[in-house]
Amino acid sequence: GAEKLTEIEIPSGYTSIGADAFGGCKSLTRIKLPKTLEHVGDSAFNNCTALTSVKASKLKIIGNSSFASCEKLSDFPFTNKITYIGSYAFQSCSLLEEADIAGVTELGERAFDYCQKLERVDISSLFDVSDYAFFGCKYLSEIKLSDSLERIGKGALGTTAIEKIELPETLKYIDNSAFYGCTELTKIKFGEGITFIGTSAFSACENLEEVILPESLNTIGSRAFEGCVKLRNVSMGDLVTEIGSYAFGYCNTLATVDLSKSLTSIPEYAFADCYELGRIDLHEGVYEIGAAAFS
Asked: pTM, whole model, 2 decimals?
């Protein structure tokens, strides 16, 4: 990168900035883009560690790693004209506080991960929250989801500060570690369309107290609620046919569980170290109880 370059103003007429165009310009602090500019290419401003401000009004496409590791970037023009944000686009932009990306219909993996000061996001046009999109955003407490959301990806909202969340009826798939380590999360309202909760999806959500699983649910993955130490009550519908090992392991205060009548086996360590579990009714169809399932 041109290490002495401090400011850029690109004149009107340009519609695109190419890949790696200004990557590694470590003294660059401000960028003013013209109203004609719609596309920022992959890694165009990657690792511009002094960049604080970007001015633009018509951006539509932000490529992969475009502003990754711009650790001082706090002022960015998120508008509803932006429809695409690529993978790693704002990774480790640790001073960004808000991302109103309500117009974005495609968001790449890890687009905002480790944006540690990010507090609010609007992703109300996304059908799919990509893998690790907001992982490590430890102050993220307000998130607006789409009413048409279908999937929350691996680690997508892991280790955020979300306290309560209502999931839409259209959501079918909660992938592995989707809400892993959300230690402020106390309440989840599941929509009645969810069929799959993946491995470690809600693991280590230390303040989660009650889980009423939707009637539509078929699968609860391994370690899905492991270490939810304040979880007291679990109720699952009768379409659940599979729960994974350690699914509710180390839920130390778990007192009541209403099992699905469709379960045929309880896997190993499924309820390990659930010290407060006083009663559990096993239905007639259960033919196998795994090693240390209730140890």
From this structure: 0.95
